[in-house]
Amino acid sequence: MYFIKRLQHEVLMHPETFGKTLKEKIHKRLCEDVEGTVHETTGIIVAVLRFHDEQDVERGLIEYETGHASFVINYEAIVFRPFKNQVMDARVSNVHEHGFIANAGLANFNIFVSKHKMPREFAYRADSEMWVAEEEDGAQVISRDCVVRFRVHNLIFPSKKEMVRWYIASINGIHFPYFPPPSFYSHPIF
To answer: Residues with Cβ < 8 Å from 23, sequence gap 6 or more?
Structure first.
């Protein structure tokens, strides 16, 4: 789910950036620093919208050792954060004997679906690296680059240094959990 959140970030600026265009350079630096990163409590920062208080840009503190100016910026950003039991779609990026890994379009948003969280009809085929469920009206196949629908179950952080969120998900009980690979579509999904 997407939200607009008010956040705060400290930006360090080199003395050579001081001048008439300082506010624009701070905004550019803020976007470079935070867009695409994971904020511990709110989720993945997708885009910076605007500053909250324009006067915050004018009040910087100079660090005596380096000469850099430190600005604490209050800003609004679009943040992506799925919740437990939320149903979403994602493109499969890796298939292996333990399940599959999918990506929902954001760099830091990875989903792992274990073989234990898939319907029992699915069997892994190592020769073609895909999960296949034989049915009366044909076979459902989960392979690289296909799109699946899943339900978010849990969130894990592998370590504090690695700012990638991993979500544990399930395709059990989801109606139409599978979509064909993108070659079947006339336009891209993600």
So the answer is: 54, 57
52 by Cβ neighbours in 10 Å (0-12 / 13-18 / 19+) ranks as middle
pLDDT single digits (tens) 57-88: 667 888 888 889 998 888 899 988 888 888 88
Q: Does domain 87-184 have CATH number 2.40.10.340?
A: no
| CA dist list (Å): 33 to 11, 104, 137, 155 | 8, 22, 50, 24
- Which fold is adopted by the domain 2-80? Dna Ligase; domain 1 (3.30.1490)
Residue 24, helix vs strand vs coil:
helix
What does the pLDDT look like over 103-143, one tens digit per residue? 876 666 788 899 898 888 888 998 988 888 877 677 788 88
| Sequence spans of domains, the chain | 2-80, 87-184
Amino acid found at 28: K
The letter for the amino acid at 73 is I
